[in-house]
Amino acid sequence: MFRRFGRNVGIDLGTANTLVLVEGKGIVINEPSVVAIDRDTNEIFAVGNKAKEMVGRTPGNIIAIRPLKDGVIADFEVTERLLKDFLAKATRRSRWMRPRVVISVPSGVTEVEKRAVIDAALSAGAKDARVIEEPMAAAIGAGLPVQDPTGTMIVDIGGGTTEVAVISLGGIVSHRSIRVAGDEMDESIVQHIRRNFNLLIGERTAEKIKAEIGYASLDAGEELSMEVRGRDLVSGLPKTVVVTSTEIHRALEEPVQTILDAVKVTLERTPPELAADIMDRGIMMAGGGSLLNGLDQLLMRETGMPVHITDHPLTAVVEGTGAALKHFDLLKRIMLGPRRY
User: Is a pLDDT exceeding 90 seen at residue 268?
Assistant: First the structure.
C-alpha cells in the first residue's frame, strides 16, 4: 500500500553536499549542504547551489550557513529547513503522502547524534526515518558483496569525515571514523598559503586549488602551478600569487597521513582470515576525497594491498541507501543487528 501511494527516499546528508535518491527515479538532487538565511526576518534566502555561490559574498543581513560539521548536525533548525526544502523538491507530495526516508550517518556518531538526524527528517516531513552507517552504504553502492562470509574493506572520504570499515556477513567487523576529510584538506591549504604567502583565501578557492593541483604523492604526476587570488594580510589589498603542486602537497601531508593511519589501525584490528580476504580483493575507495591525485597510489604503497576507486565515488553512499531500500530485510539487519568488533 505504501509503495503505491508514496515513495521511499535515500539521503546522503553530507557535510559538503547532500544527495537525494527517490526509489524508481534515481538521484534527483545533488547540491551543496548550504543554506542562506536573511538574519533580519529569519527566512530562507537560498538553499543548495544558489546558497553555495553566496559563501563569502553576502551582505550583512544575509548569512550562508553549513548546518553540518564533521558529518553531524551542528545547527538543528537549519538542517531541518535544508531537508524540508530538498524533500519537497524530490517528492512533490502532499502531507498525506509523506516519504519513508533512510539517511546515511558516519559510523562514529553517538546515539544522540543519530536521534538528531532522525528527528530532523521527521520534522522536515518524512513519514518514517531510519539511519544507515555511511561505510555500509558506500560498500553497497560500490557493489561490494557485503553479505558474503568474506572480508571487504571500504574507505569513504567525504567532506567532514573519513570512514574506514571492514565488512563481512552484512555487518561491520572493525571500523574507524575520523573527522579529517575534504574540509580539513581545504583548511590546511588555507593555512599554508596564509603562512607562506601572507595571503588570505576563502574555502571555495582552497577547494579549487585542491582539485586542480593537489597531490597526495609527488610521484602522481608532473609539477603544476596556478594563479591564486586573495587578500594580502600586510597591505589589505587584493593580491595574486603563483602556487605549485609541491607547495600544496606539503599543505596536504598532515591530513593525508591521518587518513592513512586510520586505514592502518583498522587493518590492525581486523581478524587474520578477513585480512587475507582483503589482501586478495583489495581496498575500495569512495567519496570525493578519494579523487585526490595520487591518493590511491600512496595507499597502495603504504599498505601493500591493491587499491581500487569505485566507478561512482561521489554517489556511492546515496546509491547504497537506494539499494538498501529495495531489500528492506537487509536494511533492518544492517541497522538493527549486533555489531561485531
Answer: yes
- The residue type at 321: T
Is the alpha carbon torsion for 180, 255, 32, 309 positive or negative? Answer: negative
Query: For position 227, which CATH number holds?
Result: 3.90.640.10
What is the CB neighbour count within 10 angstroms for residue 26?
A: 11
Whole-number Å distance between alpha carbons of 310 and 43: 40
Q: Where are the alpha helices (DSSP H) in the chain?
A: 2-5, 49-52, 76-91, 111-123, 134-141, 182-197, 203-213, 245-268, 272-281, 295-303, 316-326, 328-336
* Residue 206 lies in domain: 182-251
User: What is the rounded CA–CA span in Å between residue 311 and residue 76?
Assistant: 33
Is 165 a domain residue? yes
**Is 199 in the same domain as 287?**
no
Instruction: Give the residue, 340 or 36, on which the prediction is more confident.
Output: 36
In this prediction, residue 292 has a pLDDT band, given cuts at 50, 70 and 90, of very high
C-alpha cell at 92: 512533490
3-class secondary-structure state, position 136: helix
Grid coordinates 557535510 are at which residue?
15
- If asked whether residues 153 and 295 sit together in one domain, one would say yes
Contacts of 4 (CB under 8 A, 6+ apart): none
CB 135 within 8 A of CB 167: yes
Nearest to 78 by CA among 108, 43, 103: 43
